[in-house]
Amino acid sequence: MAKTEPKTKQTAVSPRDFTAALEEGPRRRDAETLLKWMTKVTGLKPKMWGPSIIGFGRYAYTYASGHSGEMCLTGFSPRKANMVLYILPGYAGMSDQLARLGKHKTGKSCLYINKLADVDMDVLEEIVREGVTAMRGTYETWDE
Fold this sequence. Notes:
Blueprint: H1 15-20, H2 26-42, E1 46-49, E2 53-56, E3 58-62, E4 68-71, E5 74-78, E6 83-87, H3 95-101, E7 105-106, E8 110-113, H4 121-138, E9 140-142
Helix pairs in contact: 3-4
């Protein structure tokens, strides 16, 4: 079986250029805020992953099927419907933080927020930091 190229991989596009190219409005302002905020919170340099994910750090994974690859430790994507934050270990043990966060929805490892004003940024910081710590404790990671 031929090895397939991962769909989401690190690119050379500047995250700052990506956010600056978004349509002027609340989504762009929230993306620019998150770019600075996540850089500060994680202490990591932002990189583009695929065409629309701004990621911080990276980790290596291998599935039971043998498929392996790399992905960002955490990140976000300013989608039209909502802002998506990637909390990659998921939310086990984060019920207290999620209860205090404010208006949001969750997927397996996605946190969906309509706008940053809907959430408590201090609680969001707890969630992001806990997620990065969990990833570092589980996978081989790099701070690039």
